[in-house]
Specification:
The complex is a heterodimer of chains A (449) and B (128). Chain A is mainly alpha-helical and 449 residues long. Chain A is built from 17 helices and 6 strands. In chain A, a hairpin with a 2-residue loop joins strand 3 and strand 4. Chain A is globular and about 60 Å long. About 2% of the residues of chain A have low confidence. Chain B has 1 helix and 7 strands, in the order H-E-E-E-E-E-E-E. The chains are: A mainly alpha (449), B mainly beta (128).
Chain lengths: 449, 128
């Protein structure tokens, strides 16, 4: 009996420890991995911040007040609060309350008065969302990068703006600039995140409300969303002209009662692209919107429903973009939706966000299930990212009261992913079972062939 | 008519009256000569000022490939690169462009050289 038990234990242990053949070296994958390492760990000899300080993987590569609240007071994000040399690097109250980061986009000659406060854009889906005929568009106003203005060069500007030990910003003293090799790796890593291609709308959605929302979204005489957010992405098409990732003045700065303006803090106006600015801001992708709020360049609106409703208001309809839409409308209307239509468009955005969460979660789990990861640590990281994505899908659907059946399946997928995360012997089996639940949830949201 | 509106909209709202998507880049002031990502060694030129023409608001720069003229306009940003001294870089002016100084010139258009307008000029301040 004892022998049998020993054999059985041996079989189980050996099967759990089976050797997974290492994938062959892939230069692109190695560059991306190097970029990941730099993105999350490299401080560039600065004030302790990394790219991941403001773009954490666990929060969709962005920060918001709820996430900020979870951080310890000595987190490098709060360096302006505990380092007197950096007192004017941020406006701490506005960062904590509204997730706003200080940027000196119009120059560094008057740090007390000349700055703007912006939300942190996520870095998902960059492969499809920064190219334009005028060159790459980075940051909220599309002109965030020094050098050649590319995503690759963006990291250099970010180090200078956000990583400095003192506001003298002397390279080699207050920080070091990224090397060419580091810039290449950071670019490769960022381009690897999220979607690698745009959706092709319409999708065969199953629920009537998001389905109607999609119709409104695509209707150039009603929602008109697809003109500037083609296929719910970040690229515009006007008539037969592809504008790529374009800038528009949509009047967000003219919104009344913006949260940061309701405080006693000094909040200068943000004039957008250029110096002096032309009032335009860059178009974000919408597929990733529902789980990456607050919305717009200044985090002015907290909910996706509010963000859709913005386009009904005077601020948008009196803006250059709103007036343009009214001019080409036979009835002279910019955008005018009723409450149910606003909710329907938001429901559509919630569902496509959830579908993207599911896609990503499955991709992470498949890497684990197929054993094509390099280290156990990497597999754990992939399972944690799968968990985050599944959590997000549950949140964006349930917060909109959408498809409880899919939400239940996603909950089960979450449970199995968690088991895979902590299992030593059955990690791949749980990953496989979690994928089945995710696919089941997807099948409840959209027709799958 | 629609086409006209579209052209107008694209011009005003999209391009915003500027010709390049990367005309701002205010952190550029802090990047030392020769280290501007994607520009240095590719599009910008680095050399010594040979002549300064105050009347014509131009400078001639000599680099290993020969001499180049850059026109300074009201849009041209002139920056003093003091990074070798461990000091913060500063805004400069036309008066800071003096014969013999090392400069990096980036033209407004990547292909534009020989008398074209400079987008920015960095002037190396290494002592004295």
């Amino acid at each position: 009996m004892r022998i049998l038990i020993a054999v059985a234990v041996g079989v189980v242990v050996l099967s759990g420890c089976q050797t997974i053949p290492k994938p062959p070296p892939d230069p692109e994958a190695e560059l991306i991995e190097r970029g990941r390492e730099i993105f999350f760990n490299e401080t560039f000899d600065g004030n302790g911040r990394t790219c991941g300080t403001c773009h954490p993987a666990s929060n969709n590569f962005t920060i918001d007040p709820a996430f900020i609240e979870t951080l310890p007071d000595d987190d490098p994000l709060f360096v302006a609060e505990f380092n007197p040399d950096l007192a004017t690097l941020e406006r701490p109250e506005l960062m904590r309350k509204f997730g706003l980061i200080l940027e000196n986009l119009d120059g560094f000659d008057d740090l007390e008065n000349k700055f703007v406060l912006r939300g942190v854009p996520h870095v998902l889906g960059l492969r499809t969302s920064i190219d334009s005929p005028q060159g790459p568009r980075t940051g909220w106003s599309g002109d965030g990068a020094p050098g050649d203005g590319s995503l690759r060069a963006f990291a250099t500007g970010a180090v200078i703006q956000h990583f400095a030990k003192t506001l003298n910003r002397v390279p080699g003293v207050d920080f070091r600039l990224p090397t060419e090799e580091e810039l290449n790796a950071l670019e490769a890593f960022q381009l690897s995140l999220g979607r690698q291609q745009d959706l092709s709308l319409p999708l065969p959605l199953k629920d009537v409300v998001p389905l109607r929302g999609q119709e409104i979204f695509l209707d150039n005489s009603l929602g008109k969303c697809n003109i500037c957010h083609r296929n719910a992405g970040a690229n515009a098409r006007l008539g037969d002209q592809d504008l790529g990732n374009a800038n528009f003045n949509t009047g967000v700065e003219d919104l009344p009662d913006q949260p940061q303006d309701l405080t006693s803090e000094f909040v200068p106006p943000d004039d957008g692209f250029g110096t002096p600015g032309d009032g335009t801001f860059n178009t974000p992708s919408l597929v990733e919107a529902a789980d990456t709020g607050p919305f717009f360049h200044n985090n002015a609106i907290e909910t996706i429903e509010g963000a859709v409703a913005f386009f009904n208001g005077d601020a948008f309809n009196n803006s250059p973009s709103g007036r343009f839409l009214a001019n080409i409308d036979p009835n002279g209307v910019g955008i005018k939706l009723d409450g149910t239509q606003v909710v329907a468009v938001a429901a559509f955005l919630r569902v496509i966000n959830a579908l993207e969460n599911i896609r990503q979660s499955i991709a992470f789990l498949q890497t684990v299930e197929r054993g094509t990861f390099r280290t156990r640590e990497e597999a754990t990281g992939l399972l944690e990212r799968a968990l985050n994505e599944t959590d997000d899908s549950v949140r964006v659907l349930s917060d909109g009261g959408l498809n409880p059946g899919a939400v239940a399946d996603l909950g089960e997928a979450r449970r199995l992913t968690k088991k895979a995360r902590w299992s030593f012997f059955f990690r791949r089996r749980y990953a496989r079972e979690a994928i089945i639940e995710l696919e089941r949830a997807r099948g409840k949201l959209v027709e799958t062939s | 008519m629609l086409r006209l509106y579209i052209v107008l909209f694209v011009t005003v709202s999209v391009l915003g009256g500027v010709s390049s998507a990367h005309c701002q880049k205010m952190t550029e002031i802090f990047i030392p000569i020769g280290q501007s990502p994607g520009l240095s060694g590719k599009y910008s030129i680095i050399g010594k000022i040979e002549t300064v023409n105050s009347q014509g608001q131009t400078i001639t720069i000599v680099d290993p490939s020969g001499s180049h003229i850059a026109r300074i306009t009201e849009r041209t940003k002139i920056w003093l690169d003091k990074s070798k001294l461990g000091l913060s870089n500063q805004k400069g002016s036309f008066a800071d462009l003096r014969k013999g100084l090392t400069v990096e010139v980036n033209y407004e258009k990547p292909s534009g050289k020989e008398g074209a307008e400079a987008e920015w000029i960095k002037v190396e301040i290494s002592g004295g």
